Amino acid sequence: MTDVSAVWLWTVEIVSTGGGVMPDITGYEVSARDGNIGNVEEVVNGVDGRSYVVVDTGFWIFEKKRMIPVGAIDTIDGKNRRINVKLTKDEIRHAPDYEEERRDEDAVRKEHEDYYGAHATTSR
Fold first, then answer.
1. pTM for the full predicted model
2. CATH 2.30.30 is right for the domain spanning 29-121
3. Secondary structure (3-state) at 13
4. Would you list the domain boundaries of the chain?
5. If we measure between CA atoms, which residue out of 93, 73, 71 comes closest to residue 31?
6. Residue 25 predicted with pLDDT over 70
7. Sheet containing 73-77: which strands, arranged edge to edge?
8. What is the mean pLDDT of residues 101-105?
């Protein structure tokens, strides 16, 4: 009988993400998978630990704003001040309207969770 031993070695690199804090992306352009949709007006950190970006869509959807979960962000390009989201313009157009005075209400959070699905339950 032959005695064969194997040793497996892994290297793990721990990269600091700044404590999970979202970088300041206020004013960044927002691009859907099929084109530009507006600019980030603010980042909202909910009491439930979830974060959203409020996007001012300008005249594109009749001056409406959208609250998009950070889980829908695909990439953040700091050099060009742009974020790319994993949604289409049509998906964003049909998303719930943003109402600043109601954004922390459970019913509003539930509406966004239901609409955005898995994107709403993840954080960046």
1. 0.75
2. yes
3. coil
4. 29-121
5. 73
6. yes
7. 65-69, 51-56, 35-45, 29-32, 82-85, 73-77
8. 88
